[in-house]
Amino acid sequence: xxxxxxxxxxxxxxxxxxxxxxxxxxxxxxxxxxxxxxxxxxxxxxxxxxxxxxxxxxxxxxxxxxxxxxxxxxxxxxxxxxxxxxxxxxxxxxxxxxxxxxxxxxxxxxxxxxxxxxxxxxxxxxxx
Length: 128
Description:
The protein is of the alpha/beta class. It has a single domain (8-125), classed as 5'-nuclease (Rossmann fold, 3-Layer(aba) Sandwich), CATH 3.40.50. It has 5 helices and 5 strands; from the N terminus they run E-H-H-E-H-E-H-H-E-E. The chain has helices at 12-16, 22-33, 42-50, 74-82, 90-102, and strands at 8-10, 38-41, 64-67, 106-108, 123-125. The protein has a 5-stranded parallel beta sheet with strand order 3-2-1-4-5. Helix 3 (42-50) runs antiparallel to helix 5. The chain starts with 7 loop residues before the first strand and ends with a strand.
């Protein structure tokens, strides 16, 4: 079921390109201006910050919700990581969980990372 207010999930790849990608900056600007949810899984934020391409404070606008990996959702994320043929990084499983929970598409630089999951998620590949 699609939510009444369509939002978007930015994964680690999308966050890593946020400064350089006009597409990602436009998504953030347009969604912010129209009060549409922008979800950033905390694991994706950590992975993006670890590359040095973005600082956590840069994703501090009130329109962006950073979702924690809590003990409540950890079993579901772990299940997604364990129930695929090839290993899935935690940030991919966390983004997939958030997409499944909200119905929002995942904006990513690697749509293939979400193939083979036991759940179907909408994935929007960023243009090169």
